[in-house]
Amino acid sequence: MDIRAVVWDVDDTLFDYTSADRAGMRAHLLAEGLLDAYDGVEQALARWREITDLQWARFAAGEADFETQRRDRVRAFLDREELSDAEADAWFQRYVTHYEAAWALFPDVLPALDALAGGLRHAVLSNSSLTVQDRKLRVLGVHDRFEAILCAAELGVSKPEAAAFLAACEALSLPAHQVAYVGDHPEIDGRGAAEAGLLSVWIDRGGRRATVDPPLGPRRIVSLAELPGILGADTRFGAPSTFG
Predict the structure, then answer these.
(1) Which residues in the chain are classed under CATH 3.40.50.1000?
(2) What CA–CA distance (Å, rounded) separates 9 from 237?
(3) Spatial distance between the Cα atoms of 28 and 33, rounded to a whole number of angstroms
(4) Closest CA to 158 of 135, 195, 192
(5) Residues in the chain with pLDDT values less than 50
(6) Taking the C-alpha atoms of 135, 139, 144 and 145 in order, what is their torsion angle to the nearest 10 degrees?
(7) pTM for this structure?
(8) Which residues have C-beta within 8 Å of that of residue 49, sequence separation ≥ 6?
């Protein structure tokens, strides 16, 4: 196996998006006085998650741009289609303040990046926007670990389309078979990367999706601690980052 680079997903792979989103939305709903419309916090959070997934699917399919899907998430959640763009943006930004307060990397991220730093190049491919992910990676202290950061909003194509994965390979000037992709979604990340010709690694954190039939192609892991063994990389723990 001649893997020379790892391309990473961000949300729920490196960054604990689900926990931050839940904590941020819980705090936001309390501050906005919106919990009375629901039978408890969990029902409200489930509704937000459902709407978020639907709007992200529209964005990934090219049916809405990044800003529009955000605004439509707010309108759908509040059931206020008449909300102006400015009002929706302001509501979402108030949520973001709470959300960002809960940002954190998963505990296995820094050890894995350190272990792989000596022998592999690193990049990011996300179905978000560069504005969002660039800042997030800086705040989390890992931005300089990656020599390229590519996002769907700027690329004009989203995972699981092969063109998204191949754009990351092109940014690294490497053929697909020399690049590994690590992501948390079995289809969008796992199957998509495998079908594009990359070595696909699906991280199923804590076995939360163990009941899901794994897609053909990707290797399944439950911790990034397993990654060096799969890649057969130089795993000098604590080796300095190649970039930054």
Answers:
(1) 5-16+104-231
(2) 22
(3) 8
(4) 192
(5) 234-244
(6) -110
(7) 0.85
(8) 21
Contact between residue 202 and residue 221 where contact means Cβ atoms under 8 Å apart: yes
| Architecture of the domain spanning 17-100 | Orthogonal Bundle (1.10)
Task: State the span(s) of the chain assigned CATH 1.10.150.
Answer: 17-100
Q: Identify the pLDDT of residue 239.
A: 33
CA 157 to chain centre: 15
Q: What is the pLDDT of residue 215?
A: 62
DSSP assignments along 226-239, one per residue: GHHHHHT----TTP
Q: How much is the pLDDT for 237?
A: 34
Backbone angles phi, psi at 8, to 5 degrees: -115, 140
Asked if residue 10 lies in contact with residue 126, where contact means CB atoms within 8 angstroms, the answer is: yes
The reported pLDDT for the residue numbered 208 is 62
Domain 5-16+104-231 belongs in CATH node 3.40.50.1000: yes
Q: Which of 132, 104, 101 is nearest to 27 (CA)?
A: 101
pLDDT on residue 210: 52
CA distances (Å), origin 59, targets 80, 92, 241? 20, 17, 34
* Residues 89, 73 contacting (CB under 8 angstroms): no
Q: Give the whole-angstrom CA distance, residue 244 versus residue 239.
A: 13
CA distance 195 to 3: 17
